[in-house]
Every structure is written in structure tokens, then in C-alpha cells.
Amino acid sequence: MQRRIAALIAASVIVTTGGAAQAAGESEPVEGYVPPYELIVAGEGRYKIKLKQSAIDRLDIQTAEMRTETKSRTISTGGLVFEIERSGADQSSDFFVGIPDNQLDYMITGGIKVAAGIGGITQEYLAAEDPDIRYLESRQQGYKFFRVTTNSPLLTNGQRVLVEAEANPEQELTVAPYSALIYDKNGGTWVYVAETPDTFLRHKVDVEFIDGDSVYLLDGPPPGTKVVTVGAAELLGTEYKVGY
């Protein structure tokens, strides 16, 4: 996509130097050429891009507004069986499955499943939050615990298990269209903010997860900010002086 920039914007002209333009593959500036954009130093290794109307028309740049949303999602993380209490004639057991706090940044809002396996056999168990096991959380600080009651022999004390839970983030996440997300050469994630209809600035974003056509962010431009959804790759090519 980035390689379209030569045809769409600069017709193989890659960068302005001292007010003159330098053609791809040539060492001398192209006399009299005026590129259809201006790069303005914005700091932190970024350039603000100001496009002329001819470039805007060619790129057909489109934008959409950032928004916020609290979205339920299934999270998966590792857990550990800490303690077993056997009770009843059927020798059913209460298993207390602990999850490190730093692996659970979401509020549990739905069902909790614990998957465990021995000898190639895997079984799922329903778990529950239980205020009666707060004593265990205070004793094993740094863990959150869930109770599983079963008479299955597949769960054992000290066993590592997989925990899946339906959860919501503890705060609203900023949402950007997936089409606005771009990656730099180091894998960093960005969007282009439309400061005005003809001026664009690259903004760093911290992606939490992607769901369909939406990107949920831990950090990024505030809600209501207009970001580029069509033409972002070409803008990146202009800023990085690639696409030739």
C-alpha cells in the first residue's frame, strides 16, 4: 500500500530539501518541482503533513471519530490450584484456583471456566467468585481465587490450569476503526489525526485488542478526535519518504 505514494502524491518525488525536491534515484534536485505537500517538524521523530488540495483529491482521504466503549470479552490466563477441601460422602472437593493479579486487569462479569488435563484428557469445570475465600487471598497475596466444586480426579493440588472468564475492562476503552491503524517499521502502532481537513499528525496508540473492524485502545487520541481511515498508509509513506 505504501508503495502507491509515488503515483498518488509525489509522482516519484520523495523529499523536500532546502525548498527543492529530490527525485527518486537521482542525486540532483528536480528544478522547479513543487511537491503537493509540506512536511513540518512536529517533534519526537514525527512530521506534520500539510497536503495541497490536489493531493487530497487524489488520495480521497476519509476520516472517522474516535469513541469509547466498555466491551465484554473472553480472557484466558494461567491459574494454579492452591488448596483442596474434601467433603461429603461422594468425596467431592472444593478447588481454589488462583490467578496472579497482574494477569487479570478485567472485572469478571460472566461465567468462569477452568480447564485441566492429565494424560491427554482435558475437562472443563465451572468456577465461581466466592467471598468466603477472602482469607485465602489475604494469605496468598497477589492472587485472586475462584472456587471449583467437583469430584473429578483430574484436578490436583499444585496443578497448573487454564482459566477462561467473561470479563469487562475496569474502565471504558477508546475505540478506533481498524482501517485507521498503521504499523511503523518497528511494529509500533499509530493513527493519523486530522487536525484540519488538510493537516495530519501521526499519533501513537497502545492497542489492547482487536475485534472485527474495531481496535480497542489503552491509550490514544481522546474520543471525538478525527482519525484517517482511508489514506493513512499513503500519509505514512510521505512522512517516512518511502513508496518509491
UniProtKB/TrEMBL annotation:
Key words of the record: Signal
Protein name in the entry: Uncharacterized protein
Signal peptide positions (record): 1-23
